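Tutorial, part two.
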Amino acid sequence: MSTVSEAIHNHHQEISTALRQHVEQIVGGSASADPEALVTFLKSDLLPHAAGEERYLYPAVDPLVKAHGSATATMIVDHEFITGYVTQLEETAQALRSATAEARPALYANLQRLSLQLEALLLVHLEKEERVYIPLFEQYLPKDEQQRVLDGMHEAPTGTAAPDQVLDVRVIPPRGRHELIFTTFDALRPGTAFVLVNDHDPKPLFYQFNAEREGLFTWDYLEKGPETWQVRIARTGHAVTI
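Running the prediction step on this input gives:
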């Protein structure tokens, strides 16, 4: 990671950490919670950061995406996080069924937090599709092609296997990569897989899989560096026990 990229990454971490602290204090009813301090932080740090990205970072990245990337990559990242939230909600709901009276309040609070985070993410995700993709879709695709896409989106999978999900963690902060990878893996149906794309050899991750999901996965390298590493991680027919 370059010095400039590291500076941007560190600023992102500072903003997310500060926001998390404010939110936890307010949601938890802490005596030190200060809504006015939250608003001050948002207006003096978060909104100027967003404005700076729109003015300088995005115009610089836009031609790079057109030349080297994918215009829908950020939407796929949204889907990965949505899948992760669904998995966490399922696990929390299952835990609530057999939880003791003492454990239920904390589990229910976690259920509320996850639900609100998923709702916020989904609303923004759908709004991006409505504002950016659908107008282009309607304006430039022929009607029969539009119908084909719609039919394909809603038909039940038959015959051929669906392509593997691609999880590109190069755009994810390093501290959150392993959690997202395991969340993605645990959401797989037996016999399905995802392709992990990384900026280094994920060998330590392989050892972690061996320790925590032994006998439940297969690991096949598709690309070995030097800049990009791709590994197909498949779920075997056994159930995953968390």
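The beta strands are 165-168, 193-198, 217-224, 229-235. In part three we will examine how such features are distributed along the chain.
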